[in-house]
Amino acid sequence: MSVPIPDPALDIFLPRFLKADGEASRLAATRVLRPRPSDLFYDVEPTVPDDHGLSAVGFAEFAVSPSVRIVVDTRAVVPCEVQSLIYVMREAEARTGVSVAGVHATHEIDPSAGLSITTSDASLVETARDAWHAVRALSSVSDVESRSAPKLYGSKLRLTSLLAAAVCSNLPAGAPILDAMAGTGIVSRMLSGRFRVSVNDANAYGAVFARSQGAALMRDADELIERLRQVASRNYDALVGLAPARFATEADFFHGDLSDEQFVKYRDFCREPVVAPSERPPCGAPYQLCLARYANSYFGVAQCAQLDSLRAAIDEATPEEAPERDLLLSALLMAATVCSTGPHFAQPRKLTLASFRDTIERRARSVVWEFELAVRRMASRPPLRHPIEQATQGDWRDAVTRFAQGSGSRKPAAVYFDPPYSKFQYSRYYHLLNVLISYDYPSIHGVGRYPPLADRFSSKFEHNSKPALSEFEDAFDLCRELGLRIFVSYSNRGLVPTDALVDAMSRRFAQVVEFSDKIRHHSQGTRLGDHLGYVTELVLSARND
Predict the structure, then answer these.
(1) Which residues fall within 8 angstroms of residue 40, CB to CB, at 6 or more apart?
(2) 3-class DSSP state for residue 257?
(3) Engineering a disulfide at 335: which of 43, 371, 471, 473 sits with its beta carbon 3.0 to 4.6 angstroms away?
(4) Is the Cβ–Cβ distance between 110 and 132 less than 8 Å?
């Protein structure tokens, strides 16, 4: 016995059809199922906030139509999983034309989620079961995959369920999809579990991370790491020989007293360059880019020498075409982000008495140890179910056109866009990672020690709302012309207002559907979002076929 109780918390479990005029259609009626007081054997749990900041309403019913009803324990699911199932059931029912007059029966779909479906069409039961388990299987990220994912701004590691829900419900298994702005590569890895994935990123570090998803070591990890150690050790010793006193002084700071007097001495120590930056050292000289440009700004002295030495080892131990090279470069970039004094590379963290202890502790970390850990983790990841079909670095326009002419010519096919949400440019925050890959000894400028602006990728998605919206419209126009479906990740706090984005999509595509989730984000220690700290993350799906 149940009592219908309206609850606005259930809105987050509903996908929405969006229109250019701003209207949004709810795809199901809802009600919360709670026991009557006479149901003495029902274990009533107290209402407490869950991970999404919503009321833990327990079991709820979603009436997709008079002939299809879904019941699920909302405490055991992620809202976007339910959104996906509702959308799939609605589309399936529209194709089959289920009769309301048939005999309705309730079928259990997933006991762990308290999920069941009531319908008169047995074929819809299998559709529901397949759709539900497809989303859960695709969004599952193993512990080693999570630990080997770079922790960079814009990473979608926490949004795999939302992306899986949107893509699985709008694209058949085995269909081609382009991850046009691959970033850390975690989405490409996830999508490869069900789809034929191509990847692209404009930044060199993003392209390396994406290519490394399918990379594997061609020899024993211990053997390779030992070989890298030998080469790196030679380069490191040569760097110490350039400024032995500087290395020794830093070691004394790491093992000494952290007093006010020591802070003053360390501050003065950090103001002096270790070696003078040069365009490129002479032939035969040790690799020294980081030591000359970033010592005592983004890293410690020994850390810079370790980064340079590992980069030298990668060059010597792996030829350009070696599949494992991308994996090793990714491990080096991950070690750099873990050992950096600050959270990014937009500008060095200011050294103050308050930050002195933390700075010393961070600069005492071993880059070599973090690198070897990252190599072992990435080498132990499960192999991709479907190998990455194509990996490129360049502008999204070129990538989309190339995709449509290649694997994307098999329809249906789709493009996933994950543009920056704000005006802050990723190439400014992570310029150092690009330099570690190119290793071309660029001139450095400004407090952030940036390479020349002409050498840094700049996206119109990052400037302000007007050019960002224009860039979105160009993307939508190109995909429409090429007959491609699209998925767009964005946020309700993005540079472009959501209404403007939806309007641009709805004027070009026959169907636009919103999938969403609420996530807590932090930005340099400041909580973003509503009064509870939640931001609504969106995946907008659009298609004409």
Answers:
(1) none
(2) coil
(3) 371
(4) yes
pLDDT of 481 reads 97
Question: Is residue 306 domain-shared with residue 286, that is, in the same domain?
Answer: yes
485 Cα distance to chain centroid: 21
Q: Identify which of 7, 31, 162, 16 has the alpha carbon closest to the alpha carbon of residue 86.
A: 16
Residue 178 has pLDDT above 90, yes or no: yes
Q: Express each pLDDT in 516-533 by its tens digit.
A: 998 875 554 445 555 456
Last residue in a domain, options 379, 402, 434: 379
Exposure letters 329-354 (e unless 16+ CB within 10 A, then b): bbbbbbbbbbbbbbbbbbbbbebeee
536 & 405 share domain: yes
Number of Cβ within a 10 Å radius of residue 424: 15
Phi-psi region of 446 (alpha: psi -120 to 50; beta: other; left: phi over 0): left
Q: In this structure, is residue 155 part of a structural domain?
A: yes
Residues 6+ apart with CB under 8 A from 259: none
Give me 290's structure tokens.
Answer: 């980081």
Q: Across residues 187-207, what is the average pLDDT? A: 94
Q: CA–CA separation, 276 vs 246, rounded Å?
A: 13
274 plus 393 within the same structural domain: no
Angle CA 160–52–9, to nearest 5: 120
9/69 same-domain check: yes
Q: What residues make up the domain containing 410?
A: 142-216+384-420+459-543
Q: Give kind and range of the element (H or E) at residue 58.
A: none
Based on DSSP, count helices (H) and strands (E) in the chain, helices before strands.
Answer: 19, 17
Q: Are 106 and 207 in the same domain?
A: no
Pairing status of strand 511-520 against strand 534-543:
antiparallel
The tens digit of pLDDT for each residue in 266-322 reads 999 999 999 988 778 888 899 999 999 999 999 999 999 999 999 999 999 998 888
Location of structure tokens 């098999």: 410
Residue-level length of the chain: 545
Instruction: Give the 3-state DSSP-derived string for 293-331, with helices as H, strands as E and coil as C.
Output: HCECCCECHHHHHHHHHHHHHHHHHCCCCCHHHHHHHHH
For the stretch 406-431, pLDDT in tens is 999 999 999 999 998 876 666 678 89
Total structural domains in the chain?
A: 3
CB atoms within 10 A of CB 538: 21
| CB atoms closer than 10 angstroms to residue 372 | 20
Backbone angles phi and psi of 226, in degrees to 5: -65, -40
Inter-CA distances, 231 with 179, 312, 324, 375, 531, Å: 36, 7, 17, 16, 53
pTM of the model: 0.89
